[in-house]
Structures are given as C-alpha cells and as structure tokens.
Amino acid sequence: MSSDDSLLDELQRREQAAEEGGGPSRQARHKRLGRLTARERIAALVDDGSFTELGKHVKSRHGAASDRLAANLHPGDGMVCGLGAVAGRTVAVWANDPTVLRGAIGRQGAVKLSRLLDLALEQKAPVLALVDSDGMRVEEGTDAVQSLGDIIVRTLRLRDAGVVQLSLVCGLCVGGAAYNAVLTDFVAMVDMQSFMFVTGGKVSKEVTGEDRELVDLGAPDLHAKVTGSCHAVVADEAAGVALLKRVLTFLEPVLPSEDAVERETPALEKLIPVSERRAYDQRRVLAELFDAGSVLELSPAFAPNLLTAFARLGGRAVAVVASQPMQLAGCLDVNASRKGAAFVRWAGRLQLPIITLVDTPGYLPGRQQEEEGILPHGATLLEAYAGVRVPKMSFIFRKSFGGANVLSFAADIRLALPMGTIDVMGSEAALKVVLGPEVSEAQREAWEKAHHTVWAAAEAGYVDRVVAPKEARRELARVLERLAR
After folding, report:
1. Catalytic residues
2. Cβ–Cβ < 8 Å for 286, 295
3. pTM, to two decimals
C-alpha cells in the first residue's frame, strides 16, 4: 500500500469517526427514540450541500479529569457547528451531539462555537441553534465556567447587533445551555421530548429537598404558558425545523403577495361588535386584515390577553401587537407587559414596522398585580415602544383607556374605527371620580359626548384618521407604505 493510500485510509477513518459522534451503538439508541442525530438535524435545516463545518475533528483535552471524560474523547467534542444556507441565505448553525456525554458542552466544543458566533457577527448571519444539552461539563471546572461565559457574551453581542438568533430545543436544555437559549430571540420546544431548566431533579432534591420529575421542572407546557420562555411548542423535530425556516422568511422586507392591498374588509363590521362589553376573537381580525396565510403568532399560550405575531401587509413584513378581548377583556397585566416589551424590542432589532391593534380597558387592577410588579413591568413596555426606531402605527378598534394607552399613543400615526374611544378611564369610573356617585342621565350624555367618542379624540388631535371597517386594510397599507419607505 502506498503512503498516499494510507493517508486516504486515515482520512476516511477519521471522517467516519467524526460522523458517528458518540459511536454507532449510541446513535442507534438515540434513533430508536425517534430522534434525529445532530448531523441529521442540521441536514434537515440547511440547503443541500451548503454546510461548511468548523472544527470537525477537535477533541477534548480533559480526558484526565475523570473516567467518564476519558471514555468520551470523540472527534468534534460533542458539538457540530458551521456555516450553511437556508433558502440561499447564509446562516450559522450549531447542534449539540446528545450521543456524547448527553450533549454537555466541553471546552473544545465551546471554542469552535465561539468562533462560529464571531463569524456570524462579522457576516450578520442568523444563528440557528439545535439544542440537546445536559449543560456544561462539571468535570472541566473553571474551563466550564469560561466556556459558558464565552458563549453567552457572544450571544449578547449578537443580540445587541440585531443579528437574529433562533433556538429549537430538541431534547435536554440544562443550566448554562438553558440560560443561553432564553437569551436568543426565539425558542421553540419539541413536545414530549424537550425539557429546559436551570437545575435538574438530583440537584434540586439535594438543595431543596423537593423530589421533582423533568416534566415538573421544565416541560414545554410550563415554558409556553407560565414562564413565557418558549415561543412555540411543536409536535416533532420536522415541525420545529419548518418553523425556524418560516421565521427566517420575515427577514425579507418585501415578498410578492397575491392578496390585493386594496381588498376591502367588510367582515370587520360583524367581527368587531360596537358594544364595548362584548368580546370577540382578535385572531379572526388579524386573518382578515393581513395578507392571507401570512400571520405567524408567537407565544400564543403565554399572556393570551395580548397577541404578538409576524405578518405581511401588501407583501411587506410587519410585527403585530394586538389586544385580545377574549381574554381578560383585553386588559394589560404583568405577563402581557413582559411579552409585549420583549416582542417590540425584537421587532426593533429586526427593523420591522410595528402595527398595534388596540382594544383594552386598561391595566388589570388589584393587589396581586401590584405585588407582582405591574409598575416596573408596565414601564418596561412603555420604554420598549419609546426606544425602538421603526415605523409605528396604532389602530384603535373600540377602547383605549388609562395607562394601557401605551398601546395607542406610542405611534407615528394613529387610526381608529368610528366606535373607538380614548380616555383616561372608562366613562362609568370617570363619571364617579369627577361627579360623584350620583350622576344624572343628562350629565352622563354630556360627559360621553365631550370625552367618550372617537370624534373627541380626533378633534383633540390624538386620532389622525377615523376609518370605516371595510377600509381598514386599505388605509393601514397606505400608511405603512408611506412610513416604511
């Protein structure tokens, strides 16, 4: 055998070892669970033939730290990462290899991931993370601390630079891996197989005495409904990959649309009741206003009284914030403020115009909300709207009362339907504050005429244009076209 042949044989052997991750038996066990390997996940996400890998053959230098590490000195060090393309757009993509130490991040894996994130910052390439990690490798000591710091610092730099970062949690997402995931712009979790938490059951029991299962500590349902850390729960990994690709499409400012901008919206006359006391589903309004099939709602189960979504209007990508009268009558509360503020800031980093659809009686009152911090969280929403430098439009459907006027007044142009009302508070409460408990019908009519109609707001200059429901899409698109040029 020639020396050339031996060199090629070694190349083939090393390539095969790198492709096998933690070994054929572990990959087979992983696939029996119905899960993709790290490389298969990346292949499903990026365009065929586009993946250029970094550090494919790096190995851990911590084999002496423990028998466990010594037995897992696999090429790649449990991390697959590189540059690729999605629909022709360059992306930085990385995936933990769960067949190597359950995807725990080691020093060498962290070094090459840091290199990738630096490249993403330089090229302004979206970062796509396919997370399946047991956190940092405890045996590596201070190197593990340094590794986590290196990754998180770069994640924050990318966010500050407006580089999109999307995470799909495919399995475990523990400790430092969980912190890093929630610092990205978007987190999706695979139902029934992904779990995200800071400390696992063993550590929790040791410290607190509580015996908790994974599902209690960090199941998708918990983060989708309670913590708000998960923006979407998907049925399987294929659905998660498709969702990441769809989110990326909103980086294209304008795409062709078959839905005519001039399309009338007479259905809004029936969808939005005139009476302030009747609820309606704002999702049906979004479907009517925006381009057909374009609405992508985020965090639907968290703070359902405020909807956040990407959509298109006349082909132009927009961010939508909308009161949901079906939940808490559309009141803002602590969680809605957190959700709205985070989304508005992300829209600002993406340079997307923000359209806010308003129908809210104000902030939810009560001691519980005060104790949970409605004041600082409400202020955060105010700060988010004031801080973003993108075109902003508000459309008042019926109510815009009290402090919740943040949804309407933080706009470059304000539209309203004929039944829209803008006031410091609802008329019943305002009358009692101003005139006392005994109010005559004449006093009531005079007050409502002076303060509680859309024309009072229009005459005061608060509302720029009063729009008939059937003209809503057309007028909104016209304003968007002028502001977003």
Report:
1. 175-176, 403-404
2. yes
3. 0.92
